[in-house]
Amino acid sequence: MGAQIAVPATLRNSALLGLGVHRPERVVTNEEICRLIDSSDEWIQSRSGIKERRFAKAHPEESIVEMATSAAVKALDAAGVNAAQIDTVIVATSTYGWQTPHSAALVADAVGTGGASALDIQAGCAGFCYAVGVASDLVRTGTAEHVLVVGVERMSDATEPTDRTVRFIFGDGAGAVVVGASEEVGIGPTVWGSDGSQGKTIRQEPDWVDFAQNPEQKRPWIIMEGTAVFRWAAFEMSKYARRIAEKAGVELADLDAFVPHQANLRINDVIVKQLELPDTVAVADDIIETGNTSAASIPLAMEKMLRTGQVEPGATALLLAFGAGLSYAGQVVKMPPLAQ
Ligand code: UT7
């Protein structure tokens, strides 16, 4: 009755210790996409900034678990952490085809963690930053030593090849980070939220049970009311970016990098303008070659910035993810090292 419950006495700092990605080999140009939709390379580039994206191999190859594992192995290498040191695996995805078992348990096994706790997070395109927030708090409170966080999607499975309102936007891929304890603060406080009243603006239709009961109808696909989502993203996100910086005690002008979700180059241009970011802040633009990879977009965009030398490990970056839900999440982080 009167027994005291022990908890770690103090919080510690957390950081991104390493980053790895998996980019599918197959590059899909706008020209290829336009063979099945009434559109053009010129329209797609001018409306979204996208020149090409990558699609994973046909199911069951390059599966969610395979791509997540491939990115995770590289992240562990970059972090100098063994798989056995991982005690939690979090996979953020909205395109895993199985309702059970969850993908993180299979990734934890495939990576060789030897029985890590594992959970999936589904928060649309905001999923990676949701997962980083959870992982950071697990490490800070002492619940976990090392958390493997993966954002992974096969958007090509979820968008109808003939639907010109969505097919050109999305791509496939995976990005992973290892979150662990650190001397310095490497991950700032998470700002997150959702607006379910606008949940229908990005939705799957119909649901799988409805489809199973009425198989004569079209199979479930992602449907997006693009302009409504565009408006929400372009005009609400600067408010949350300011809040993220404020909570981390960082001036926006002192950032080295801004890594917004790669949904549309024009959305990010509007956010950058509203934030009045100086030219010294490098802005991620991976969408041009990668399209919108939903929960994988932030780690993929971080990898491009590090690989191309736009920023160095240790640089201060503001991550801001947003999408279905409508949900958003973000935090200020120190950029992690990449595997060599
Ligand atoms: O990652 C999750 C979050 N997702 C997002 O943040 C995506 C946000 N939305 C967007 O990025 C943009 O809304 C899109 C890129 C999807 C669409 O751009 P838009 O400027 O909002 O185009 P729109 O839907 O308002 O359509 C403009 C015109 C219409 O023609 P009219 O009515 O002006 O004659 C459309 O019928 O473009 C037409 N259109 C197309 N034309 C050629 C729509 N889709 C296409 C297409 N190719 N693929």
Main attributes?
single chain, 340 residues, alpha/beta, Peroxisomal Thiolase, Chain A, domain 1, five-stranded mixed sheet, binds oxa(dethia)-CoA
Note down, in words, how this protein is organized.
The structure is a single chain. With 340 residues, the protein is α/β, with parallel strands linked by helices. It has helices at residues 30-33, 41-48, 64-79, 103-111, 127-141, 155-158, 208-213, 226-248, 265-275, 287-290, 297-307, and strands at residues 13-22, 27-29, 52-54, 88-92, 117-121, 146-154, 172-182, 191-194, 202-205, 221-224, 257-260, 282-283, 316-323, 327-334. The strands form four sheets. A five-stranded mixed β-sheet has the order 1-7-6-4-5, with helices on both faces. It has a five-stranded mixed β-sheet with strand order 8-14-13-11-12, with helices on both faces. The termini are far apart. The mean pLDDT is 97. It binds oxa(dethia)-CoA. Residues 37, 39, 43, 47-48, 125, 164-165, 168-169, 202, 226-227, 229-230, 233, 263-264, 267, 292, 294, 323 line the site of oxa(dethia)-CoA. The site of oxa(dethia)-CoA (UT7) has 22 residues, from helix 2 and helix 8.
**Would you report the number of β strands?**
14
Tell me the structural class: alpha/beta
Largest sheet: 5 strands, mixed
Helix content: 25-40%
Quickly count the domains.
Answer: 2
Q: Per DSSP, what share of the residues sits in E-state strands of 2 or more residues?
A: 15-25%
Helix-strand string: EEHHEHEHEHEHEEEHEHEHEHHEE
The parts where pLDDT drops under 50 for at least 5 residues are none
User: What's the name of the CATH homologous superfamily of the largest domain?
Assistant: Thiolase/Chalcone synthase
Strand order in the sheet with the most strands = 1-7-6-4-5
